[in-house]
Write a structure and sequence with these properties.
Elements (H helix, E strand, L loop, with lengths): L13 E5 L6 H10 L3 E3 L8 E4 L5 H10 L2 E4 H8 L7 E2 L1 E2 L10 H4 L12 H13 L5 E4 L6 H12 L2 E6 L6 H12 L2 H4 L1 H5 L1 E6 L10 H12 L4 E5 L8 H5 L2 E4 L5 H15 L1 E2 L2 H11 L3 H12 L3 E2 L1 H23 L6 H10 L4 H8 L6 H24 L5 H10 L13 H22 L8 H16 L5 H11 L3 H10 L18
Parallel strand pairs: 1-2, 1-3, 3-4, 7-10, 7-11, 8-9, 9-10
Antiparallel strand pairs: 5-13, 6-12
Helix pairs in contact: 5-6, 7-10, 12-13, 12-14, 13-14, 13-15, 15-16, 16-19, 18-19, 20-23, 21-22, 21-23
């Protein structure tokens, strides 16, 4: 059965979350969106509920009271929503399934600048600058996947400009940049004004240009002075120390992550053309998970559309996959020998909570025992800094943690990076804790004492069951005396290394009252 958008309890309601919540902020926001609600950052006349955790923001509380906005505690919200179980939504398909392997992000790629999703002002600034044929270089800055390069291609196409393209990762040093310089400063371009007007130089990922040879940076600056054609640069990270000097010589055009609502409109258009019906709330969850990356959102929609039903968990898994890819990319770059210390520190700050875990997982490879010991000591220092940052809120130690994680260890990337086992172990630990709590909660119902004595009693039973020498009759009497049942023993078997077969568990009859 298809879930209707109007069936969701908070459709059309707007939430603002403030303070420290017991549930992670991400899970809480996902739950609100799953139930049809919208989450914004600030309180306004359109806000329906202010969801307040501990230590809520006083300004938000004051404004909510002034506007008559209802204030909910986290407990109130959980109680109100506990009985809502959202079933996977059914995708209604009005066309026969398309077996084409063409990617939707290519199929529905904008053909003109007016079709680009988001960053309209930035695209207008780019076109205006190219029309003026200004000799002042421009640099487009913003995260990957938000349309920087695409907007250059389309703007150049519409203005009749031919692009000379280079990638900063491939042209890093003085000699290589000199080749580019020769093309953009040659005298033939100045002899004919028409030739001059129809050329522009695009240099992508400029922050990677100086990682091998500082001379490359100086040659780029010289290129700015001598070029006869417009120069367009792109950078994913404008805070990189490598391009600090370059930015002072350029006009900077900033590209922002694309707003979720703009992505939703784009996804609705694609879904309509593909003959599939997906609730707007689900499209919003996809767009939020994509974190401003239009291409990733479209890829998610294409993947999920192949299913008959979409659950919130499907979308979350896709989000985790995206994060995992970012972690691998960051780790791979950190372990590259040609990447400068400044770049490595920038990379650390992209994933400060997980960078150390990933480096630790991959530091044992080629090299001597002495080298491994030195790296181990260095990563131990990083762990100390990380622990103090988290436990004592000493944020000033972030650069220290970055240095000992990404810069000082002399590690070379292996062909295949391993994902951190620690994260998987933490997930298993959380599951084990839930089982342990369940056992302890069951203890009072069965006349067990609780605490360590309960665990000791259960462990004794498990040992007896594992032993082949103890008569089953004696084990049964002992178990019945403790008022245990199979469920408790099965849970404990899962928590320990004592593995028992279900068949070996004696049949325990309910105790008579």
């Amino acid at each position: 059965m298809k879930r209707k958008e109007e069936d969701l309890p908070y459709t059309g309601r707007t939430f603002v979350v403030t303070g420290t919540t017991k549930m992670s902020r991400e899970d809480l926001v996902n739950r609100i969106r799953e139930l049809g609600g919208k989450v914004t950052l600030s309180v306004s006349g359109a806000t329906t509920f202010l969801l307040a955790g501990s230590e809520p923001g006083p300004a938000k509380l004051k404004k909510a009271v002034a506007l008559g906005t209802k204030v909910l505690s986290e407990e109130d919200f959980m109680e109100m929503t506990s009985h809502y179980i959202i079933q996977p939504i059914e995708i209604k398909k009005t066309k026969s399934e398309n077996t084409s392997k063409e990617r939707w992000c290519d199929k529905y790629k904008p053909a003109t600048t007016s079709e680009i999703v988001g960053n309209k002002m930035a695209v207008t600034q780019l076109k205006t600058h190219l029309l003026s044929m200004s000799r002042v270089p421009i640099v487009l800055v913003g995260s990957s996947g938000i349309g920087k390069t695409l907007s250059v291609y389309l703007a150049a196409k519409e203005l009749g400009i031919s692009l000379i393209e280079y990638n900063g990762s491939d042209y890093r040093n003085k000699q290589e940049v000199s080749i580019i310089k020769g093309l953009s400063t040659q005298k033939s371009l100045t002899r004919d004004i028409h030739l001059h007007k129809n050329k522009a130089l695009l240099m992508e990922e400029i922050e990677n240009m100086t990682s091998s040879d500082r001379g490359g940076l100086q040659e780029v600056l010289n290129l700015f002075k001598e070029t006869k054609i417009p120069i367009i640069l792109t950078a994913n990270n404008k805070n990189s120390q490598n391009i600090k000097t370059v930015l002072t010589k350029c006009k900077v055009i900033s590209y922002s992550k694309v707003d979720s609502r703009s992505i939703v409109a784009h996804l609705k258009n694609i879904a309509s053309k593909e003959g599939i019906s997906v609730p707007e709330n689900t499209l919003m969850q996809i767009s939020v998970t994509a974190n401003g990356d239009v291409r990733y959102a479209v890829n998610m929609l294409q993947y999920l559309s192949k299913k008959n039903k979409i659950s919130t968990e499907d979308i979350r898994i896709m989000g985790k996959h995206m994060t995992s890819n970012n972690l691998f990319d960051v780790t791979k770059e950190i372990l590259q020998p040609h990447v400068s210390p400044a770049q490595k520190i920038d990379l650390f700050f992209e994933e400060p909570m997980f960078a150390l875990l990933m480096v630790f997982e991959n530091y044992l490879g080629e090299g001597t025992i002495k080298n491994a010991a030195e790296i181990s000591d260095t990563l131990s220092m990083a762990e100390i800094a990380n622990a103090r940052m988290l436990n004592s809120d000493e944020k000033r130690l972030f650069p220290v943690a970055a240095y000992y994680t990404a810069v000082k260890p002399k590690i070379h990337a292996t062909n295949r990076l391993a994902f951190s086992k620690y994260l998987g172990q933490m997930s298993s630990l959380a599951a084990s804790k839930k089982k342990l709590v369940k056992i302890m909660n069951e203890a009072p119902k069965r006349s067990l004492h609780g605490g360590w004595s309960t665990l000791y009693d259960i462990l004794s039973v498990m040992s007896l069951l594992e032993s082949k020498n103890t008569p089953k009759k004696d084990v049964l009497e002992y178990i019945q005396g403790l008022h245990m049942d199979k469920n408790v023993l099965q849970l404990f078997s899962e928590l320990t290394e004592i593995k028992i077969k279900p068949a070996s568990l004696p049949l325990i009859k309910p105790q008579k009252e």
